[in-house]
Amino acid sequence: MASSQDWSQIIHQSENERFVGREQELMLFLQELRREPPRTLIFYLTGQAGVGKTTLLRRYQMLACEQGFLVAECDERQRDVLAVLGHLAAQFEMHGLRLKTFEERHRLYYQRLHEIEADPQAPRGQGGLSVRTLLRMAFVAGELLPVVGPAFSYLSLEDIEELASEWGRYLLRKLGNREEIELLRDPEQVLSQLFFADLNRVAERWPLLLCLDNLEATRPALFDWLLRLPEYRPSGRIRLVLAGREPLDREWGILRGVTHVIHLDVFTPEEAEAFLDLYHVRDPLRRQEIIEVSGRLPVLMSWLAAPRETGGSYTVLPASDMVERFLRWVTDPALREAALLGALPRVLNRDVLAYLLRCALGEQAPHVERVFDWLVGLPFVSERGEGWRYHSVVRRMMLEYLRRRSPAEYRELHACLATFYRQQRDALYEPGREYWQASRWQEGTLNSLYHGLIAEAGRFWGEFLECFTLALYQERRLAARLVEMAALEEVRRDLERSQRELLELMQAGLRAMEEGDWATGLRLFDRLCQVQVLSPRARAAAYFFRGRVQRYRQAYSEALADHSQAIALDASNVWAFVERSRVLRRLRRYSEALEDLSRVLELNPFDARSWASRGQVYTRLGRYEEALQDYERALALDEGYVWALVHRAEVHRLRGDYERALADLDRALALHPQEVRALGEYGEVYRLLGRYEEALSCLEQALALRPDYAWAMACRGLVYAAQGRRQEALADLERALSLDPTLELAASARMALLAAEPPAATGDSPVAGPLGAGAGTGEAPEAPEWRLSTAPAQPFSLAEHEAWPSSGDPPAEEPSQS
Predict the structure, then answer these.
(1) Torsions phi, psi of 383, nearest 5?
(2) What is the pLDDT of residue 334?
(3) How confident is the model over 474-492, as a mean pLDDT?
(4) Residues 312-321: tens digit of each pLDDT
């Protein structure tokens, strides 16, 4: 009868048959599976690398299947929550059990994500951040939540707030479906709820076991989600097995009471003897040597015991030669060499093994099929989706053996692999071009650089720095993976001291970009700007980033110099022009900012943000008609552009056209009811119209949303002054100036109030009574002599609005563009 199992299943079954020891752990697990109602919902296997966590996990899976459980598993290949949920659901579908609602929404989420990534009209420009990260940032800012987490704090508050508005407009225009927007807003929450709702229906028929292996690799992405599992109300017939090297944190919280932690250690002497019996190791000297050399660590015992004994005489080898102890039992020279060569790539498959055999053995290379089938059957080689991997402990020892055996040959083989992966990548993609978002291009680049750095660090270091610097600009996740790769011991050990120091700074710089540590970020970009081997384009990216950090630090002269240098190196770097225009506006060099934005619009005339930014510059220059024309262009490209509406309202106000100003503000608040700038501008228009109560209402709403909104606070101070509420006016003006000392009208208003003492009869009390005949008509009402009689009619320019709301953050003067 033909077998219904595939090779992987047969190999796993063979491993289970050779399973030895861990009787106590197996008994406890079996008892808990049978217990009704269950007391343990989560089993957590922990211990050092090679101690047998994965092997015990597979044994648990077999026991669960024998008890009628359906089993699904994940490992380090599924690196985030959505990947884990999708992989688990796919395994249940293989059993004919579709999680229908979940699968449809899961598929829809990735479909929409891919559409957005491919859409040239989607908001862009946040320095290599992924669309998923940009969406999360936009929703966080749009809901006025605390801005925390990776990649958030390194951007200015204004960048994030404008991002929220921009993405909100885009999603409403593209989707128009509240359910889909909610899915994009919080995919983990939405999809987890649907996943467990569907899974609970399956659990009504079968008990379920979900297994997550190698949790140490995915812990940062999955730990918080695991803590939130009770929120999704999984059925009591669903159990989890987790396996990872690190112990559980104290933060495990309410799950601690339903979690059984199983600490695995090396084999006991009795278990070690039984293990060797199963592997048919008969020679007493060999048995003793394996036990002593391996320290009874299961993975090393399985490695050393894997080859069959040949019956020849046994010679004890030096204790340090672990690899030799394994290889001497492999009598076929081709298989001996293949076992060593297979350790070189991080992921092994038939193609890469064939290439390595040809590189190492030339015409004497054996047929790859026979060698490959033998190799993947070894106990320390496991399948991992895209290929096979050696156990990390065994691979590390084999790499060290190859390196010591022949350093020159070791480097040559890595050079061959660097060429292999580069050729594979270039066969799929046009050589000489970058495809930053393409996963296979990324993998080819990572593997080529990994082997290249080991083969010849001096030659490949410049290419590595080039790729890292451009990845910061294009795809920051790839930059993080590049640094993670270069920090591996087999790569790092051959780097020069200066290279290792720079690598450490790159690691610190990436953390700084998550934590808002400008000083560390500045040190990294200082170093990158000095790397002469970088291409002009990469150096321009380094200067661009340093200039941005300088702007965040309000070091505007330094920022201007850096962006000018970036443009000199790469005149096609549009974002450098955009960033320089922002700095020039902060320096009030509006004519130069106008030139930069005009250049941007020559390169991209369909960018609504740049039209709006140039409109703002025209406003500062007092060229109101040209400002209105640019805002019209921006709104023609994006009719829901709230930022442009608010600043066009400003132009109308400055021209005295309050009716049009209010119409634009009505549109802005209809689109975004909590748009703080619109509320502040409303307050200023009403102040100029003498409609003080309405002005106060709008300004107080703005300040409730942003308590440190200095401009709105100064406006309210002017309203209080016009009403005769002197003490309240002084309090607001002084508070506004403490937040932003550059508010010139607030300073002059405060001086006027202090210079004009109120009549003795009134003391410091506000003056009551009607506003006068001009109230509500746009004319200045009469006021007691000590009041600011000019306040109602004097515009408070949004040029002073630029110090937005937190004194520690960069000013808000334009839409976020990069």
Answers:
(1) -80, 140
(2) 87
(3) 91
(4) 444 444 434 6
Degrees, nearest 5: CA angle 602-603-605: 65
Between CA 452 and CA 818 the distance in angstroms is 33
DSSP per residue over 282-332, as a string? --HHHHHHHHHHHTT-HHHHHHHH-SPP-S----PPPTT-HHHHHHTT---
Q: 204-232, pLDDT tens digit by residue?
A: 999 999 999 988 877 778 888 998 999 99
Residue 692: pLDDT over 50: yes
Q: Rg of the chain over CA atoms, in angstroms?
A: 34
C-alpha–C-alpha distance, residues 432 and 694, integer Å:
61
Q: Is the pLDDT of residue 358 over 70?
A: yes
Say what the alpha-carbon torsion angle 576, 582, 587, 589 is, to the nearest 10 degrees: 80
* DSSP secondary structure, 704-743, as one string: HH-TT-HHHHHHHHHHHHHHT-HHHHHHHHHHHHHH-TT-
CA dist 180 → 175, 183, 327, 593 (Å): 7, 5, 57, 39
Q: Which two tokens mark 491?
A: 């790569």
Looking at residue 8, its pLDDT comes to 54
pLDDT of amino acid 524: 92
Number of other CB atoms surrounding residue 208 within 10 Å? 23
The DSSP bridge partners found for residue 209 are 71, 239
User: For 353-363, b where at least 16 C-beta lie within 10 A, e where not — what string?
Assistant: bbbbbebbeee
- Tokens for 742? 């550059």
Q: Is the dihedral of CA 400, 405, 411, 414 positive or negative?
A: negative
Maximum distance among all Cα pairs of the chain, rounded to whole angstroms: 117
Strand order from edge to edge, sheet including 70-74: 70-74, 208-212, 238-244, 42-46, 259-263
Instruction: Give the separation between CA 750 and CA 369, rounded to whole angstroms.
Output: 86
**Burial track 524-557 (b if 16+ CB lie within 10 A, e otherwise):** bbebbbebeebeebbbbbbbbbbbbbbbbeebbe
User: For strand 259-263 and strand 381-383, is the pairing parallel, antiparallel, or unpaired?
Assistant: unpaired
Which residues does 43 contact at the CB level (< 8 Å), separation at least 6?
29, 32, 60, 239, 240, 241, 242, 259, 260, 262
Written as six digits, the tokens of 711 are 């401009």
Q: What are phi and psi of 276, to 5 degrees?
A: -65, -30
- DSSP symbol at 228: T
The residue count for the chain: 818
Interval 548-607: pLDDT, tens: 889 888 899 999 999 999 999 999 888 899 999 999 998 999 999 999 999 999 988 988
> Which region holds residue 313: left if phi is over 0, alpha if psi is between -120 and 50, else beta?
beta
Predicted confidence (pLDDT) at residue 800 exceeds the cutoff of 60: no
Q: With helix as H, strand as E and coil as C, how does 745-813 read?
A: HHHHHHHHHHHCCCCCCCCCCCCCCCCCCCCCCCCCCCCCCCCCCCHHHCCCCCCHHHCCCCCCCCCCC
Any bridge partners for residue 212, and if so which?
74, 242
> Secondary structure of 448-507 in the HEC alphabet?
HHHHHHHHCHHHHHHHHHHHHHHHHHHCHHHHHHHHHHHCCHHHHCCCCHHHHHHHHHHH
76 C-beta neighbours (distance < 10 Å), count:
16
Q: Looking at residue 793, what is its pLDDT? A: 41
Q: Which of 556, 553, 603, 606 is nearest to 581 (CA)?
A: 556
Output DSSP code: residue 251. G
